[in-house]
Amino acid sequence: MFRSLLDRFQWKGTDHVYSLPWIRNRLEYSADPQRVKEFLQGAKVTRSQLTRDMLSRFHLSHHSIVVSDDEHAHQLRSVFLACLPSPESYSGIAKDLVKQVFKPGGSGELHLSRQLIPAVYLSLLSNLLGANVLRALEEHIRTIDFQPGSRPMHLDGVMYAIGMQFPGLGLMRNVIDWAFFKKDHYTRKIAIKLEQMVFEFATPKPASWYAHLIDMKQSGKISKAQFRGELTSMLVSSYALSAAMSSMLLCLAARPEYVTRIRSDQELAKHFVNEVLRLFPPFRQFGYEEKGIWEKSDRSKDTVTDFMVSVFGLHRNEQVWPDADVFRPERFEVADAVKGCKFMPFGLGKRSCTGRVYSLRVMVEMLNYVCSEECGLQLSLPADFVKDYVGLPLGTNGRLVSFPVDDRIVVRRGVSEGGSPHA
Ligand code: HEM
Fold first, then answer.
1. What average pLDDT does the segment 107-133 reach?
2. Read out DSSP for 353-394?
3. Above 60 in pLDDT, residue 417?
4. Which residue has its alpha carbon closest to ligand 1 atom 42?
5. If pLDDT is split at 50, 70 and 90, which confidence band does 415 have?
6. Which of 194, 214, 234, 281 lies closest to 66 in space, CA to CA?
7. Collapsing DSSP states into helix, strand and coil, what is residue 395?
8. How far apart are CA 242 and CA 106, in angstroms?
9. pLDDT of 278-337, one tens digit each?
10. Structure-model confidence comparison of residues 67 and 417, the more confident one
11. For position 419, what pLDDT does the model report?
12. Whose CA is nearest to atom 40 of ligand 1?
């Protein structure tokens, strides 16, 4: 029924353009690297209205870097990047995460996302926001059952195309969420409470991102709403990083032969992480628009207003990724593997992900540690794991952040820290 509704929209261009003749919003969805390149290299582009709208609902804020204008985002980005942890800290951050997710002494089956989200969130608060997390906040985070949800993105696209993003229709959107997308409602409740608790139960470390945010708020450089928006965005960043880590650990569990190979080849860990992000990008789609497109009075009927990159489709496009569905980290050994707008898990350009360096480093260090003898973990997939996808974990389709549908992993303690086998 949903599909037949979509079919009523026109099909155009290299991929799909959703529009109705009498509506101004025209969305193009593309998975063609040439078309993406052409669009991004043509006119000046910025994040699209639709993406901002979806992100602000998921972020629960209309005021973080993610949804602000280019100039403001650029200023905050430089402060943020200056506060990143030093390169040598990442292995410690990754080890701590592994120890929290796979509790020492624990064996058996566990759900990765459930373990990862609170651990990653706490880790981001401490290492990226730069906050001392007080006990009340830590205990609260550990009791939460995180179930990040969002309505299907194509539905968002359709609602946007028919003009339902207008503020006056907010009540109707809320009713739809409440009736059909209860997880959205739940995610929002959790985030609002967390934002308040971070404010009350976290103190800034010196010269941290958090300390700078407080300074900027006090000096009036950012508003209270913008300050709160940045705190909230730590949560959605935790979802993205946890989703990527879940996929990475499942991919490793499905291919134990990589454990010894990664031990002897550090570069392979980077390629492995890239291959995970290629096949399982946490953000499956995001969008850009030509700057000033909304002000143009001569905008023709055929002009696209929002250019949505289908990252999932792009990363599995057979024309640029031979054997696209096959998990093969070695494809990234070639120097130009990531060139030409065909690999963009963190987006491209001025508004690309500010957490890219942090996320990649922590993931690579986590993979190195999990594969090391010192860690002593053996990961495998449960016997009844869904295998209709050649042993790869599948992501939830069409959601803003895509988690593996089945995220169960089996943990055994193989080798102890001293290198001797456990009983
Ligand atoms: C594997 C994990 C992550 C992935 C795959 C990811 C991906 C993305 C993507 C696709 C975008 C949109 C880019 C664009 O529109 O061109 C984005 C934006 C952003 N991400 Fe991430 N992200 C991750 C983790 C993080 C983390 C840990 C942070 C930490 C704070 C973060 C902070 C941001 C911010 C602030 C933006 C907005 C940047 C701007 O608008 O200028 N991300 N991310």
1. 94
2. -TTHHHHHHHHHHHHHHHHSTTT-EEEE--TT---TTTT-PP
3. no
4. 355
5. low
6. 234
7. strand
8. 20
9. 999 988 888 898 887 777 766 666 677 888 888 888 999 999 999 998 999 999 999 888
10. 67
11. 40
12. 66
Give the architecture (CATH level 2) of 2-413: Orthogonal Bundle (1.10)
Question: Which atom of ligand 1 is the closest one to the Cα of 51?
Answer: 15
Per-residue confidence (pLDDT) for residue 10, from 0 to 100:
42
- DSSP label at 404? B
Mutate which of 58, 122, 238, 346 for ligand 1? The one with the most ligand atoms within 8 Å of its CB, which is 346
Strand order from edge to edge, sheet including 408-413: 108-111, 408-413, 377-380
Evaluate if residue 113 carries a pLDDT over 80: yes
Identify the pLDDT of residue 67: 79
State whether the beta carbon of 37 lies less than 6 angstroms from ligand 1. no
d(CA 251, CA 227): 37
Give the whole-angstrom CA distance, residue 324 versus residue 276: 12
Q: CA-CA distance, 157 to 182, in Å (whole number)?
A: 19
pLDDT for 421 equals: 35
For ligand 1, say whether the CB of 240 is within 6 Å of any of its atoms: yes
Beta bridge mates, 53: none
State if residue 354 touches ligand 1 by the CB under 6 angstroms criterion.
Answer: yes
Q: How far is the CA of 24 from the centre of ligand 1 (A)?
A: 28
Residue 105 CA to ligand 1 center (angstroms) comes to: 34
Atom 2 in ligand 1: which residue has the minimum CA distance? 241
Ligand 1 neighbourhood includes 237 CB (under 6 angstroms): yes
pTM for the whole structure: 0.89
Assess whether pLDDT exceeds 50 at residue 12: no
283 lines ligand 1 (CB under 6 A): yes
Give the type of residue at 379. Answer: L
Domain ranges of the chain: 2-413
Cα–Cα distance, 62 to 402 (Å, whole number): 22
